[in-house]
Predict the structure.
Amino acid sequence: MATSTPRADGLAGLWEQVTTPQPAPGRVTVLVVGGVVLLALMVPFVWHLLRHGLTIVHEAAHAAVAVLAGRRLSGIRVHSDTSGLTVSRGRARGPGMVATVAAGYPGPAVLGVAAAWLLSRGYALGVLWLLLLVVVLVLLQIRNWYGLWAVLVSGLALVVVTLWAPAQLQTVVAAGLTWFFLLGAPRAVLEMQVQRSRLRRRGGRDTSDAGLLAGLTHVPAVVWVGVFLIVCGALLALGGAWLLAVWPVA
């Protein structure tokens, strides 16, 4: 008698869960979750803690574009001060290098928009698995112990929610993470500009993404900061519209 293997059943069941829309929270709930996330981003200690999640996605964006541009990825580092570094090999200048450096700050906003699109169609579990996939891919390239710890903790938290949390909690967590990436992306750009201003007053060398892009393109770093803000702001507006338009008022 033919029987299916547990592995096949598990994969089929998982795919069914990911592709089956879940009940969505009301618009009021989405607004409350967004408000909580916004407040959290304004508290320095909480922001510093949560900033590691943005750094992981930021570096993942650098890595993804580097590979797409034909560069050779050497590794990713995430540091305790929430900074990060993605090393790739290839031409030191040119469009590929510019695209690689420019991808970091918009990266979380792009992921947030993708998550908002999925949530707008009821795929909260799909959002969680998408984020887990990003974490796993970063884990394969991490090259320092603190970065390994940060990525593992993030991945473990996602696994717990994805596999064992009730469906309603999964949806709320997915909405919170979506707001986090959408709202956190412009917050990180503003933080970079503040750090650049402090560094400039001290006469230090600007090694931020905007500073690196200025050296690569001869376009002033402050212009790149403005470009990042415009892109992240536009993606926040788009993602926010998707989050709020599809769910009826509770």
Summary: The radius of gyration is 19 Å.
